[in-house]
Amino acid sequence: xxxxxxxxxxxxxxxxxxxxxxxxxxxxKEQIFISFLSTPLGPISQIFWFSNSxxxxxxxxxxxxxxxxxxxxxxxxGFVTGGIGSVIYEVIFRKEVSYGRRRTxxxxxxxxxxxxxxxxxxxxxLNPIWASTLALFVTAxxxxxxxxxxxxxxxxxxxxxxxxxxxIYFFTLSLYPDLVEQFWVAGGLSGITLFRIPxxxxxxxxxxxxxxxxxxxxxxxxxxxxxxxx
Length: 230
Known about the structure:
single chain, 230 residues, mainly alpha, two-stranded antiparallel sheet, 67% helix, globular
């Protein structure tokens, strides 16, 4: 029964992804770009860091890569959460964005620096979920340091992703009440929960929102947020 749980949660998330995609034609390029950029991050992080120390979800179908069971769910998770986080601020607050000259070298450098920070923290023994959360948040703060116009997007993307996470877990835990016990590695969680949702998951979603919410805008050098007229 629990082999469907991960896909079920992704399905809930995909409803938001599709709704945003249909509502805002002007944001589709950004949404698709960040979705595909995020897609490989789920499988990669699971293979090298998360499977042994944080969680081992059940998959509908899986293959072994470097001795780790991996399902398509990991890629789908990266796709939908990336797309949602990238545009959630603009959709909810009805904002349009105008861009200046792209700053590709700086954006790529910050992205790679964040990835290195995560790898170093995880290699140093920090729980990978906290290593990921910290790296995402620090990377987002660096982008805000360079571009103060992103402050509101940074803040509200994180908050809104928290609400998305609560909704996803509320429905998933309602159907799969033993999800945490089934999927997470013993000792991988602090035991702190909100609405039965592990604190680690909620804080990660916030940090992901702060990063995914502004990365495209930072790369494209956002010059102005203006009201979106339907």
